[in-house]
Structure formats: C-alpha cells, structure tokens
Amino acid sequence: MQRMLLNYGFFQVGWFACVWGAASGRPWLGPLVVLVAVAVHLAVAVNPRRELLLLGICALIGLVFDTVLLQTGWVSYPNGIWLTGFAPYWMIALWVLFGTTLNLSMKWLRGRIWLAFLFGLIGGPASYLAGQALGGMTLIESVPALIALAVGWGLVMPILFWLAERMDGFSSATRPDFILASWHKQEV
Description:
This protein is mainly alpha-helical. It has 7 helices and 2 strands. Helix 3 (48-71) runs antiparallel to helix 6 (142-166).
C-alpha cells in the first residue's frame, strides 16, 4: 500500500511539474522530476528490466500519439519541442510517468477492459484540458481534438494494461511472454 501511495504521489507531482514547467518556460523541469520518479520506481521493482521495457514502450506510444495530435493541428505546445513536428519531450516524459502507475497505483484496472476503456475515454481528455487550463498546451481545434483524445485514450488504455500485465516488474512470477522470452531465459 505504501508503494502505491508513493507511486500516486510521484505521478501527481510529476504531472504538475511537466505541465507547469512547460507553461512557465521551463520544459526541462518536469522531465527532471520524472527522472527521479522513474529511478525510485525501478529501484523498488522486483524486476526493473521488465518495468523499464514497459516504460520504453509507453514513451514510444506517447511519441506517436501526441505527434499525431500535433501534426493534425489540433494541439500546440508552447515549449519543449525537441524536433520540429514531434511532440515535446515533456509530453513523452508524462507518458513514461503514466507508465509507472500501470503496475502499481492503477493496477486495479488490469483485466477490466471496458473500465479501462471508459477511464481512458474520460480521463485522457480531462488530463489534456487540465494541461490547457495551466497553460502547458492549447487545443487548437477543440472538438476534433477532444474526440481524438477520447477515442485514442479509450483504445490505448486497455492495450497499456495488457502490456503492463505481461511486463509486470513488481510480480515475482516469471513468465515467458512473447516480448520477454529472451530475457526470461537469461534470468533463469
């Protein structure tokens, strides 16, 4: 329970640091907080390699997802663009930070596909609206952006929990899943 509360606390602080940092012209601030959160997360994991793989996949999904939103012209970011046309690095850090919650404070959503879908459908757009309210981003085309966010997060959430279950670095059980098959052989 203590790990879950710590995880939840790190997520809240990291989310705010990323969004406020971007809004205040300090887009590097959030990723620094996320780096600390990830270091603590991996330090307490039973199998940090599994968690690190999960966080890497979350970063890739986030890069694609938020880059598509940027490329469609539905979203703009005031700071942190590391490469023209791609989502800012602080947004990618947020996806990594979110990944740290999948096997801890949000683990209760695993196996509940429809609930995860609904959580993404509502929570995804709500998070972006909160980010906009703080000045970290702008929804240029609000209606299409909110629809894309709702559908996108609704679809991504069950996928993330499916991946998290297979890459659970907090479970002591070893599982020769398709993604971790070669790593599993090395651990034995």
